[in-house]
Structures are given as structure tokens and as C-alpha cells.
Amino acid sequence: MEQGEAPPSAAGEKGGEEEDDFGYRLFPDRNKKPQSFLVRSLFTFHNRCQLMLRMTLDTNPYAQLLLEAMKQSGCTVFNDRHFSCEDCDGCVSGGFDSATSQIVLCQNNIRHQSHMNRVVTHELIHAFDHCRAHVDWFKNVKHLACSEIRAANLSGDCTLMNEISRFKFGLKGHHQTCVRDRAIRSILAVRKVSKETAEKAVDEVFDACFNDLEPFGRIPHSKTDAKRAYKDFQNRDRYNANL
């Protein structure tokens, strides 16, 4: 999990006890009565969030590929229905709510476009996994670990430039180390489990989930890689349509 970037924490049924809140504490607006459009339009954070979201959906190849893949899988994503800009606690930047199939974008914590691009991509990977597989987000920590590995691996979270901006440097195997560390952090951020439990879950599924590159077909280490992956995905669909 990128500092401020949450996994599918707000998903599913709420637990009856505090220790089983499944990360809902990070998204307090999930339970509040929605504000009117007029009231929301007066808040700069909300307007900025909506504008950055639209820019991501219209221009970012990571997001565009995932949106197309979701549509091909029978889970078309609609801006007004499946994204919600809200205030969040702490330093989280987003989450996937499986109960509503909705991506939460933390308007008070997402401050620039490149951050919005990564958050939307990260959460769309969770949404894609939710669409294509029977993911048990709450009772099976391995399922959560797998989606977190995929999100860290494919969203651009661990690109060289992002790691340099975090003052983290490495040589051989650094990408895998970044993916593992961020997946563990994501689990610990939203599940009250021990670090040992999170590490064990990630390690047990790491190889299989790290090598699951759908729908990209490759690890997109840059926007250029993502553009190529998007083009390949479109060509693959055209090829399949002609079979």
C-alpha cells in the first residue's frame, strides 16, 4: 500500500465488533447521509477530486485498459455510480467497497494528478479481481494478499521513479521486494492481524499472484509500457472477435 493508498478495506459486511471493522474506520463518510450536490459543489476538495478523476479515466492508459477489461468481463464501470470522492481518516487515499462495488477516493488526501492516477489504477485492479473471481475479502487473508500483490505489481506503485521519490533504492529483485512490502503494509492497514500473519499470507501466494498479469499481459513499469499493454489488449480483443 502506498502511503495513503488503501486496499479493498471498505468492502463487504461490517463486523459487529470493533476489532472486526475491516478498515471502515478509515472511511467515515461511508455511513453518512450523502450531501446534496449544491453542498458538495462548494467544497474545493470535492471539485478537485472529480476533475482529477475525469482526467485519469480519460487519459491514463493504466485506467483505460482496466476499464476496457472490466467491460469485457461484464462489469462495466460508470463514473457517477462506481466512484465516490469522500473525506477519509488518517493518510489513506482510496479503497474498494465490495458491498457497493464502489471505489472510494479520499479527496482530502489526493493532492496531485499522478497520485490520483495510481490510486484509481490500484483500486480498479481490486475491482477487476472482484469481477472475475470469487474473492473472499474478509475471511480469507490469502485472497486479500493476492489482490494486494497484483495491485502493487501492476498499478505503477513500485516503478523506479516512485521508489526513488520514497528514497528507496535497490538493484536486482527490488521490484519484487517493493511489491511484497507494500502488499504486507496494505493488509496491516485494514486488518487487525499480526505482521507475521500478513507476511505468511503474502509469501504463500506471492509467486502465483505476482505472475498473474491479467489484464495487462506484462508488468507496466511506465506509462509507455501501459500504453503498449493497452494497445495489445485492444488488438487481442479484435483478434478474438474474428475467430
Automatic annotation (TrEMBL):
* UniProt cross-references to Pfam families, sorted A to Z: Peptidase_M76
Can you cite a GO biological process for this protein?
mitochondrial proton-transporting ATP synthase complex assembly
InterPro entries attached to this UniProt entry? Peptidase_M76_ATP23 (IPR019165)
Q: Which ranges are annotated Low complexity under compositional bias?
A: 1-12
Is Hydrolase included in the keywords of this UniProt record?
yes
Keyword annotations from UniProtKB, A to Z: Hydrolase, Metal-binding, Metalloprotease, Protease
Question: Membrane: present as a keyword of the record?
Answer: no
Among the GO molecular function terms of this UniProt record, one is: metalloendopeptidase activity
Q: Name one GO cellular component term.
A: mitochondrion
Listed EC numbers: 3.4.24.-
Disordered as annotated region, ranges: 1-23
Return the similarity comment.
Belongs to the peptidase M76 family.
Protein's UniProt name: Mitochondrial inner membrane protease ATP23
